[in-house]
Each structure stands twice: as structure tokens, then as C-alpha cells.
Specification:
Elements lengths: L2 H16 L2 H21 L10 H24 L3 H15 L8 H15 L7 H12 L5 H12 L1
Helix pairs in contact: 1-2, 2-4, 3-4, 5-6, 5-7, 6-7
């Protein structure tokens, strides 16, 4: 069992003991999503399940989905639902590594541009793919995309 899976399972047990409903429901949703991806990966020969890197990517996409929901709920004046989504984001972030700041993203983007030999906007995909492969869960790729565009544009 991967390290991140173990952490999630232990967090679920701890949340159940503490009767923390928000944490229980959020961790259960994460575990269910991971299990779905494990099942989807089986036909391609991956019997052990998805890697920690893929779990981090899944957690990042779960945060992005919740941020999109928050924007919709705030437009609809549903502060209660937006607050619930924010609480879930806070729970998910506890399983992610420390996020890079804007300055660190810029430095790493410059390094990847040099490493991939990117010369213009047509090479942006190569740079972003390299960043995603190395720094999943540690970087806001929306910010990174803007930085790379600025550097290549």
C-alpha cells in the first residue's frame, strides 16, 4: 500500500474516532475516487493501483473542482455551500506536500524551459508536461501556466 493511501486510511479512522463529519466525508470521497481510478487502471496491466503521483494529481483536481463550485455557489448567494466546499479543500490540502510560492514557481519554470529547450509558445506543452511530472501536488499549475506563458511569450 502506498504511503499516501496509508495516510488517507489512517486519517479516515482518526476522523471517525473524533466524529469529524466534514473530514470523514471528504476522506471517504477521496478514497472512493482513488478506488475508481484503480479499477480503471486494471485493464492496462496496473493491478496494484495508481501511484502516489497519480493520487496527488487526483487531489489537485478535487481541489480545482471545489474551487469551481465555490465560484458558482457565491454567484448564487449560497454561502453555506461555499463554506462547505472551502472546508473540504482545507481537508484535502492536509494530504498535499507544501505548495511552492510564486517566486519558486518562476525559478522552476525557468529551469524547465532551459531543460526542455523551449523557444516559444509552441513549446509550452512540453514545459507544462515536465512541470506536472516533477511537481504534482506541489504547484498550482494555473499559476505555473501563466508564468510559463510570460516567459515564453
Amino acid at each position: 500500500m502506498s504511503n499516501l493511501r496509508t495516510r488517507l486510511s489512517e486519517a479516515l479512522k482518526d476522523a471517525l474516532r473524533a466524529k469529524d463529519e466534514t473530514r470523514v466525508s471528504t476522506v471517504r470521497l477521496l478514497l472512493a475516487g482513488i478506488k475508481d481510478r484503480d479499477i480503471a487502471a486494471r485493464p492496462s496491466g496496473n493491478a496494484t493501483g495508481i501511484s502516489d503521483q497519480e493520487i496527488l494529481n487526483f487531489c489537485q483536481s478535487a481541489i480545482k473542482q471545489r474551487q469551481d463550485s465555490i465560484a458558482m455557489f457565491e454567484q448564487g448567494n449560497r454561502k453555506d455551500l461555499a463554506d462547505k466546499e472551502n472546508a473540504e479543500i482545507a481537508v484535502i490540502k492536509t494530504f498535499l506536500p507544501q505548495q511552492f510560492g510564486d517566486a519558486e514557481i518562476a525559478v522552476l519554470a525557468k529551469q524547465e524551459i532551459a531543460a526542455t529547450g523551449a523557444a516559444g509558445m509552441k513549446d509550452m506543452g512540453k514545459v507544462m508536461t515536465a512541470l506536472r511530472a516533477k511537481y504534482a501536488g506541489q504547484m498550482d499549475f494555473g499559476k505555473a501556466s501563466n508564468v510559463v506563458k510570460g516567459l515564453l511569450g
